[in-house]
Amino acid sequence: QVQLVESGGGLVQAGGSLRLSCAASGRTSSISVMGWFRQAPGKEREFVAAINWSGSIHYADSVKGRFTISRNYAKNTVYLQMDSLKPEDTAVYYCAAKISLGISTLGDQYNFRGQGTQVTVSS
User: Fold this and answer.
1) Is the pLDDT of residue 53 over 90?
2) Residue 17: partners with Cβ closer than 8 Å, 6 or more residues away
3) CA–CA distance from 48 to each of 1, 14, 36, 74 (Å)?
């Protein structure tokens, strides 16, 4: 099993920045891909970004150029640096881990998910 714990959410004004962290524990050697998803009230969960073991990265078009995903293998932690935040970025952000190879934008293909951290961007 793998446990994921997110941190770093909060309230920020539009144009501001936040950095989310996701610490993995348990059988971390089984993780191939780590990603971030988000879900706003009344909306479906959507893919944000993901990074695999070799450093390949994929972003959703809506965050490309504003968000940066990175991974610290020694600390089993993945980060999401969010800059130029917009009110439409407001959501609960979830960290997810995938065992099988290959980045996926589909949440159902990830094996583990954290509890989430709230990000609120005020206008």
Assistant:
1) no
2) 81, 82, 83, 84, 85
3) 24, 18, 5, 23
What length does the chain have? 123
DSSP 120: E
Asked whether 24 and 34 are in contact (CB, 8 A), the reply is yes
Question: Residue 111: what pLDDT?
Answer: 97
Reported confidence tier of residue 117, pLDDT bands at 50, 70, 90: very high
> Do 33 and 104 touch, CB atoms closer than 8 A?
yes
Name the residue with tokens 């501001």: 16
Q: Side chain identity at 10, as an amino acid letter?
A: G
Determine the Cα–Cα distance for residues 63 and 48; give it in Å rounded to an integer.
7
Helix (H/G/I), strand (E/B), else coil: 105: coil
94, 7, 82: which is closest to 46 by C-alpha? 94
Quote the DSSP letter at residue 100.
S
Q: Which two tokens stand for residue 17?
A: 């920045």
